[in-house]
Amino acid sequence: xxxxxxxxxxxxxxxIPTLPEVVMRINSLIEDPDAGTAEIGSLVSExxxxxxxxxxxxxxxxxxLSGECVSTSHASTVLGVKVLKNIVTQVAxxxxxDHLEGNDYFSVSDLWDHAGFTAHLCSKIxxxxxxxxxxxxxxxxxxxxxxxxxxxVLMDGLGERYLDLARTAAxxxxxxYSVERASLGFSHTDxxxxxxxxWGLPEQIANGIQYHHGPRSEVAKNVVVSIVAHANLLAHRVxxxxxxxxxxxxxxxxxxxxGLSDEAxxxxxxFALDNRHVRMT
Length: 281
Ligand SMILES: [Fe+2]
Ligand SMILES: [Fe+2]
Hints:
Elements: H1 4-13, H2 21-31, H3 37-45, H4 48-58, H5 72-79, H6 81-96, H7 108-128, H8 137-146, H9 149-158, H10 160-172, H11 176-184, H12 188-198, H13 203-210, H14 216-221, H15 223-239, H16 252-258, H17 262-275
Helix pairs in contact: 2-3, 2-6, 3-5, 4-6, 5-6, 6-8, 7-8, 7-15, 7-17, 8-13, 9-10, 9-12, 10-11, 12-13, 13-15
The chain binds fe (ii) ion (2 copies).
Residues 147-148, 177, 188, 212-213 line the site of one fe (ii) ion.
């Protein structure tokens, strides 16, 4: 983790979202040995607008279901409670920032599409990896989902000032990460790591968020960080018009670190190309 004073500055000046209540309730049901998938499905169905959005995502191309899920109980049976929990988390987080409006340089809905896409790529890499042992694909999904959440927290807290930074980044051809650091002294990665620790996520997951733009030394020494960093890069490459260069991200050194065979990389790239246009909102 980086300098603790930066974390304090962020906690004191920005409104850090809490873990959505519905996710907390699902967590306690998952831990309850008397509760089953049906209970978790019916808990989600109590909130009709939430349930409708959850079903729309569950039925999206990402999950490749053969038939349509018609209820959240059905979705929890077909997809499993952990996957359903991740979809609920995604919808609930997006809902928390419903009020935000971006501009030509910062689109909130594009950001969520990117977050969802990166989350799926993280989960896919995690499931293909032969070396990742301590974390599940579902945990990596959350890491990918939240990797850029700091951007919406910053947009929420700084408003026009953040939109100005987005315009500067676009006009000067710099990344948001570097513009944020130059003008604020910290970036969305620091903010995202604060969100992760507030949610009680494991430190390595918080580190995945913290270091998804580097430094390279962190990416090289930590598989979780490397998965998020490479999933983020892959998401940008296949989305922003250079899909043919996507495979180049996975050089022999990276494949060895992540435990990915050539076939695994092929299947990952195919998954990325098939799903690059799926919308989240
Ligand atoms: Fe980022
Ligand atoms: Fe990103």
